[in-house]
Amino acid sequence: MRIAILLLCALLSLPARASTLLIALEEANNAPFEFVDQNGQLSGFHVELIRAVSSRLGWTLELKRYPWKRAMLALQYGEVQAVSYVAKSAEREAFAVFLPDNLLHVSRTTLFIKRSRAAEIHYLPDLEQMTRRWRTAMPSGYYMSDEVAGLTKRGVPIAQPTVTQSHLFSMLIAGRYDAIFGATDALQRARAAIPNINEEVQPLDGALISGKSMYLAFSRTAPAQQAEEFAKAYRQFRQEPAYRALAQRFEVVELLPEPGEFK
């Protein structure tokens, strides 16, 4: 009897397996990763990926939308177990866990040009020379990559008009610039504002610049092992055809992390 009681106490002292996962999303249209679809439902690559992994774990998933700063505070103070679409930083690591296998996607930047100038404008691997030769621009306040940020800090003439990415595409089409920086999925996002954009604009061949790694960041106050359990199930999911099919559905295949980027 005494042994049975000791065994029961030992079992009760083990960390409980997480059964509910409360995740905060930014209260914004972050298509194709996180957005409200035409039926009023949350969807997107991150959303469906998290749903698929949570289902494999048998967890009940709850998604809640917040203004971004509020989402970070909720993560810091343990009001949610995790926040999606988070870039790692030393400041955030103080209250959040960034496991390599919880990397959702890697933002990548490219240069866009008018299709009519494809035979004229070619990418030079030395990005600084490229931006000094051609009139280039990026929207003010947008992060493109550390490499591009370094160029602007050194005074390389990259224009930064205070416009949206879609407006900058319109300026490119109008001939204000020779090439513009944008995320690799920027054309997809701009279709609503410029329906014929794919007929006018194309990515510049060879111009692919790595940017920020975006994670599902878990709160350090979340139940023990929760981040690790999610990471393990997510790693297994990436080996299945459903993972790539999901990326193809939301047209983010180019943003999937390479094996060496899960670190």
Kindly describe this structure:
With 263 residues, the protein is of the alpha/beta class. 35% of the residues lie in helices and 25% in strands. Strands 1, 4, 5, 6, 7, 8, 9, 10 and 11 form a 9-stranded mixed beta sheet that branches. Strands 2-3 form a two-stranded antiparallel ribbon.
Strand-helix topology:
Blueprint: H1 2-13, E1 20-26, E2 35-36, E3 42-43, H2 45-57, E4 60-66, H3 68-76, E5 82-87, H4 90-93, E6 96-97, E7 103-114, H5 127-133, E8 136-137, H6 146-153, E9 158-159, H7 165-173, E10 179-183, H8 186-190, H9 197-200, E11 201-219, H10 226-237, H11 241-249
Parallel strand pairs: 1-4, 1-5, 8-9, 8-10
Antiparallel strand pairs: 2-3, 5-11, 6-11, 7-10, 7-11
Number of domains: 2
CATH homologous superfamily caption of the largest domain: Periplasmic binding protein-like II
Largest sheet entry: 9 strands, mixed
Write down the secondary-structure element order: HEEEHEHEHEEHEHEHEHHEHH
Strand content: 25-35%
The CATH first-level class of the largest domain comes to: Alpha Beta
Overall strand count: 11
Protein structure class: alpha/beta
What is the CATH architecture annotation of the largest domain?
3-Layer(aba) Sandwich
Uncertain runs are 3-16
**Secondary structure tally, helices:** 11
| N- to C-terminal distance | 49 Å
Q: How would you state the average pLDDT, rounded?
A: 89
Assign the CATH topology of the largest domain: D-Maltodextrin-Binding Protein, domain 2
Helix content: 25-40%
Give the oligomeric state of the chains in this entry, treating copies of one chain as homo and distinct chains as hetero. Answer: single chain
Using the CA coordinates, give the radius of gyration: 22 Å
Molecular shape: elongated
